[in-house]
Design brief:
CATH topology of the largest domain in chain A: OB fold (Dihydrolipoamide Acetyltransferase, E2P)
Number of domains of chain B: 1
Strand content of chain A: 25-35%
Number of helices of chain B: 2
Structural class of chain A: alpha+beta
Strand order of the largest sheet of chain A: 1-10-13-12-11-14
CATH superfamily of the largest domain in chain A: RNA polymerase II/Efflux pump adaptor protein, barrel-sandwich hybrid domain
Shape of chain B: elongated
Helix content of chain B: 55-70%
Structural class of chain B: alpha+beta
Order of helices and strands of chain A: HEEEEEHHEEEEEEEEEH
Strand content of chain B: 5-15%
Radius of gyration of chain A: 36 Å
Order of helices and strands of chain B: EEHH
Number of domains of chain A: 2
CATH class of the largest domain in chain A: Mainly Beta
Oligomer: heterodimer
CATH architecture of the largest domain in chain A: Beta Barrel
Number of strands of chain B: 2
Radius of gyration of chain B: 15 Å
Number of strands of chain A: 14
Chain lengths: ~290, ~60
């Protein structure tokens, strides 16, 4: 009888430890795999591709690489000579049209004072219409002159936002095409975090949930909140071929990888000493609002 | 507690620390149990060791995360 009691004790101690191991293992698994956190987070920022509005030779680059610029600061200058000439040309045309208008207007008033026996009614009406046409020509010349003035102003390319110049490749002597991006300007106020969460964790994440962001390899913790969740990602298994037929990738039935969905995190608080660089890696931990209340 | 650990410049999850710690602790406890003769009250020694090791690793892991 005593032997049997001893045997039961031995078995139950062992089974207790095994049961505890299973329980703890399950807890860690849930904590690690099913709680809303990801090691795949990225710092992102809006980048403005600064382009010249007008074509021409770059004569001066006023900024250095990685320089901080304020909105409205000069970035680079396009050769102005051609645009000065255009301005002079349109100015001359404007003057010419003004004189023409004065001439036609004089003719028209003079003719209006004459009666039907001296001048035909047709001539008189024509003179009025010619004046109106001259007025329209003048308006056109004014617009062209303003256009030339604007072009001249746009030879100075200025910063559209506060931020940092990045990867400056434009040099004096380069030819700038109109609308062709010449340098990248990172918007200072636009930094945000993209956390790429596995699809099965999305149910645990809600807009406005507080988030904790840890930069890779450092102890810095940034605070933020969930701003929005992406509503679509590319289906990588179904690109079309040249004949527009579906090209479905064969996949294993056994192992399936969860897709990652971008969750946009707004940064609320940056500790001192942290320099955010767009493209940095970070871990994102979401604290669901419901669990933090309880 | 950083969740990444630089191992020869490769950043690995800090869970590996829990694994190493669990290994050391379970070896230590194993020695203690052997000396104190506690293993006489154990049914399957290997099963008990495995369970103990998993318990230690998971507890340490839960402390980190």
């Amino acid at each position: 009888m005593k032997e049997m009691h001893k045997q039961i004790l031995r078995v139950s101690i062992t089974l207790l430890i095994v049961g505890l191991a299973v329980l703890l293992g399950h807890m860690l698994w849930v904590r690690y795999m099913d709680s809303p956190w990801t090691r795949d987070g990225r710092v992102r920022a809006d980048v403005v591709n600064v382009a010249s509005d007008i074509p021409g030779l770059v004569t001066e680059v006023a900024v250095r690489d990685n320089q901080y610029v304020k909105k409205g600061d000069l970035l680079f200058r396009i050769d102005t000579e051609r645009y000065h000439h255009t301005l002079t040309e349109t100015g001359a045309r404007l003057e010419q049209r003004k004189i023409t208008l004065a001439l036609k207007r004089g003719q028209s008033t003079r003719r209006a004072m004459l009666d039907d026996q001296v001048i035909s009614r047709e001539d008189r009406e024509d003179a009025d219409l010619i004046t109106l046409a001259a007025k329209a020509d003048l308006d056109q010349a004014v617009a062209e002159h303003e256009h030339a003035r604007l072009d001249l102003k746009r030879t100075e390319v200025r910063a559209p936002v506060d931020g940092w110049i990045s990867n400056l490749l434009v040099r004096p002597g380069d030819y700038a095409q109109a609308g062709e991006a010449k340098l990248a300007l990172i918007d200072q106020k636009s930094y945000w975090i993209y956390g790429y969460f596995e699809e099965h964790k999305l149910a645990l994440i809600h807009v406005n949930d507080p988030a904790e962001i840890r930069m890779l390899g450092t102890d810095f913790v940034l605070r933020g909140h969930v701003e929005s969740i992406a509503r679509g990602i590319t289906d990588r298994d179904n690109p079309t071929d040249v004949r527009l037929l579906a090209n479905v990738n064969p996949s294993f039935n056994w192992v399936r990888l969860a897709q990652r969905v971008p969750v946009r995190i707004h940064i609320d608080e940056i500790p001192e000493g942290v320099v955010l660089v767009a493209g940095m890696t970070c871990s994102v931990i979401i604290h669901p609002a419901s669990s933090s209340k309880s | 507690m950083p969740r990444e650990l630089a191992l020869l410049d490769a950043l690995v999850p800090a869970l590996i620390l829990a694994f190493a710690g669990g290994l050391a602790l379970s070896w230590l406890l194993d020695q203690v149990f052997t000396i104190s003769g506690l293993y006489r009250h154990i049914w399957y020694r290997a099963l008990f060791r495995l369970g103990l090791f998993i318990c230690l690793v998971c507890s340490l892991g839960l402390m980190i995360y």
